[in-house]
TrEMBL record:
UniProt keywords, alphabetically: Cell projection, Cilium, Flagellum, Periplasm, Signal
Database matches in NCBIfam families: flgA_cterm (TIGR03170)
GO annotations of cellular component type: periplasmic space
Keyword Ligase in record: no
Lineage: Bacteria, Pseudomonadati, Pseudomonadota, Gammaproteobacteria, Vibrionales
Subcellular location(s) per record: Periplasm
This protein's name: Flagella basal body P-ring formation protein FlgA
GO biological process terms held by the UniProt record: bacterial-type flagellum assembly
Amino acid sequence: MSYKETRKRNFRQSEVKRKKGKWGKGLAFTFLMLARSVYAQQEPESTTVKADQLHMQIRTQITEEIQTFAIRHQWQDLETDIDIAIPASIYHLPVCPEPMIISASDQQALPIGNLKRQVSCDSAEQKWRINTTVKVRIKLPVVVAKTTINRDTKIDASMLKMQTLSLYRNKDFVTQFQAIIGKRTKRRIRSGQLVSPSYLQRRWLIEKGDEVLIVAVKDGMQASMKGIAMENGAESEQISVKNSRSSKIIRATVAGKGKVQTIF
């Protein structure tokens, strides 16, 4: 008896080919991914400066500057917003083998507003520098005028209030009442306006019209008499003083609160 091998009629040869094709594509994809992984591990490190690293370094330094200033001037409840602009030329600069140097290239007293920072590499192998711009906005409670304060007015606490403001200009401000109470205004300050130290006169030890003690010194001897200050004066400044007894006007040096000294 003989047997003849025949195919099953409902069996499709194309199914086998299709299944084999799927496995082949999957293996090829896996091999490709492994090859890329090995290549990435062997790829050499970047030889140019990375913008994100420089961005982080500048942000860290600016944040430290603001924090130092805040502690020194007793800023409270401070919020900051820092925006850094780095020129596209950074992508063509070689990596600095030493820590990059970041220095101020502006004359601003406050770390607020548009700041200019120069980044430089000063190693033996590489020397380069670029300029960056940093925009700083801060938000904190500051002293503002509670009412309108006229020019040449002596400041007291009833004229002031605290208000939280966003500041983005290089303009000085005050965060505590005691820093300005007793000073006189140089100009009119509107109600709700930020009180800047530039709007105020110096704190005088002696003000015009004050009664003062005149101490006259000569050869180890001294005499004292009363007088009237004819102008404002800070410590060690010379002012005109009128002798209350003789009405004579002399020049004397401010020696303390309500006290002047002269030589006769």
